[in-house]
Structure formats: C-alpha cells, structure tokens
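for the recovery benchmark. tokens below, seq after
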C-alpha cells in the first residue's frame, strides 16, 4: 500500500455538541489522528465484524473484572456480539465475586501496602478486595464447585467455566452480575488460557491433596479453538491487552496451516488494544502486521487495527458504539457445536493427510 501522497481526508476542526451520540463521537475519533483515529477505525472494524456475521472472539488479559468490566462483556454476549472468549483465570475468579455478593471497593494506589496487609486488604492498583470476606469466601465457593465436578475425567477450561456458570446461575445471590452466567445461558465457550496460573486452579489443588485428579486436556482445547476458526466463514478477534489470551486466539491460524498442513490463512479481522511496546520482542506488543508472517491474520493491511491505549478507557467506547449501532444478533451457541466442529476438523485433517501421502508415493 502506497501512502506517499497528499490525497487523504481533510482533518476537520472538531466541534462538540451536547446532543451528540456515540456514533458522532466515533466519527470525530476516526477523522482525527494518532490513537484517537485508531480507536475510531477499531470501532468501525468491530461494527463490520457484526454486519458480516463474523464469529467474534474476545480475549481479555490481566484483571479487567475487578473494575466491573464483566458487565460490559455480559452485555456484548447477550446482544450476540461476542461468540467465544479466551481470558485469564483471574478474570473468571474475580467476576464470580459479583455474582455471590462479595465486596470489592474503590481504594487508592498511594498507600503503604504493609498497612493494607495488616488490615487484610488485597490491592489491585486502586481496587481493594478483602482477604477473608471476599477471597477466602470465593475460595470456599470454588472448592465446593469442583469437589466432585471434573474429578477423574478429561475436560477443557471451557467445560470448567460452563460448570461455574451453571452453578452460579442456580445458587448465587446475583447471577445477573456475571458474564460467566451469561456465557452459560448463551452457550458462549470461555477458555482460560493458562488455567494453572489462577486462583481457580489453586482451589482445585486443594482437592488434589485429597487425591482428586483433574485431567485438563489442553491439546483438545487448542484444537477446539482452531476448529471454531476452521468452521467459520468469517472470523475475528477483539483483544483487550496481550499476553496468553491474545496468542491463544491468534495461534489458531498457525495450528491449522503450519501443523495441520492447511492453507486457511488465519483471522479475517483483529482489533488489538494494548499499551505494550512492539520493539521488545514480547507477544503483548507484537504488531498485527508481524502476525501475518505467521499466518495469524488474512491481510496485514486491511481489517487489522492496533490502538495504543488503556483497555479500561477504549473498551467501553467500542462496546457502547456497537451496542448503540446494531440490533441483537442471533447467538451462535458455539458451546453446543464444538464437538461437531472438532469432528469435522479431524475428518478433514485425515482426508488431507491421506491425499498428501498419495502424492508423495507418486
């Protein structure tokens, strides 16, 4: 693509109107420059995913739910604008606090953490969580959930989260305050990219000391994720931050093409919201253009947008825009289809393998 010309759109002299809507704000962003422009472009790509009925994956790094953002995810699930999720265990664990009515408070970051420790207050930046009233209480809840569930059987983290959603729906005080419950209701698979690196797993470890064995089938899990891409006519990702959730979603392309010898080409759309630098070699800051060299995305120039911003600022704007602009989509209910998707990928893999073997024999 050649941008070495002076034929771009005129930069408007921005005028704000008290009666403006979110659509107007997005147009202001898109018509400006820097990351404001990228945010406007990202909103339009998200809208395009919805218009073209793409299968949309939301990846959520870090701990977004302690600041209440699970409510935004819940709204997107219920409108059909998120079809599957890859997140950290922290986001699943802390989201459950809201469903069970466990306290989380606004705190402060200019504090003496020695004092907070003595007062049994746990801090995530400027968010406070009580050690016993919240964390210990949540630990007891999770331990009860998996005292018998999943013991001595093979499972994926999507099945684990589905069980959590079912139990929280049936037994918690406020099931309406959980995106995990909504994921259960709408059959949205929720995968935990690194299950062992989470308080969910720590509580399962308690039962392991009692010789309860859990067989987390992580290889089937990554094949299920690739099968979602494989069985989707159009597929996209909205990435909040980077880390393991980002790479887990993006590696679906290389798994299909590099490992399974296909030529599908990766995702059709990717939006990345990150504050990580691209020059350090870390995956969190890796550009989407670089991802094209791995086959993670179809096109390095179209329908890929990186916004260098704090997700707690950018995500509500993107969500507000599509919620205002689009009517509810019919849910894809991928959780109920995942076994058939997996089976189709497996059948086609062996067909391709046999075909390649015959070609080599010639």
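predicted aa per position
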């Amino acid at each position: 693509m050649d941008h070495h010309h002076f034929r771009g759109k005129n930069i408007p002299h921005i005028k704000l109107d008290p009666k403006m809507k979110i659509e107007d704000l997005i147009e202001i962003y898109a018509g400006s420059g820097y990351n404001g422009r990228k945010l406007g472009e990202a909103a339009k790509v998200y809208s395009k995913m919805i218009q073209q009925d793409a299968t949309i994956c939301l990846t959520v790094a870090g701990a977004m739910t302690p600041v209440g953002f699970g409510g935004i995810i819940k709204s997107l699930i219920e409108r059909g604008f998120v079809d599957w999720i890859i997140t950290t265990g922290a986001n699943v664990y802390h989201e459950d606090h809201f469903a069970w009515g466990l306290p989380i408070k606004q705190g402060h970051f200019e504090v003496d953490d020695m004092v907070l420790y003595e007062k049994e207050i746990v801090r995530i930046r400027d968010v406070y969580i009580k050690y016993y009233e919240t964390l210990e209480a949540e630990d007891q809840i999770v331990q009860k959930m998996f005292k018998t569930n999943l013991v001595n059987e093979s499972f994926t983290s999507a099945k684990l989260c589905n069980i959590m959603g079912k139990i929280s729906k049936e037994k918690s005080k406020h099931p309406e305050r959980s995106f995990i419950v909504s994921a259960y209701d709408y059959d949205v698979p929720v995968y935990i990219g690194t299950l062992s690196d989470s308080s969910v797993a720590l509580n399962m470890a308690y039962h392991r000391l009692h010789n309860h064995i859990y067989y987390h089938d992580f290889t089937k899990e990554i094949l299920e994720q690739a099968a979602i891409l494989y069985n989707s006519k159009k597929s996209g990702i909205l990435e909040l931050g980077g880390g393991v959730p980002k790479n887990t979603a993006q590696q679906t392309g290389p798994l299909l093409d590099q490992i399974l010898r296909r030529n599908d080409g990766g995702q059709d759309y990717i939006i990345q919201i990150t504050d990580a630098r691209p020059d350090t070699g870390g995956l969190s800051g890796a550009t989407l253009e670089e991802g094209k060299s791995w086959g993670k995305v179809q096109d390095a120039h179209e329908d890929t947008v990186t916004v260098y911003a704090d997700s707690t600022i950018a995500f509500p704007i993107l969500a507000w825009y599509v919620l205002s602009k689009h009517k509810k989509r019919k849910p894809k209910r991928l959780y109920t289809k995942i076994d058939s998707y997996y089976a189709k990928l497996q059948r086609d893999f062996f067909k391709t393998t046999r075909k390649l073997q015959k070609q080599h024999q010639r």
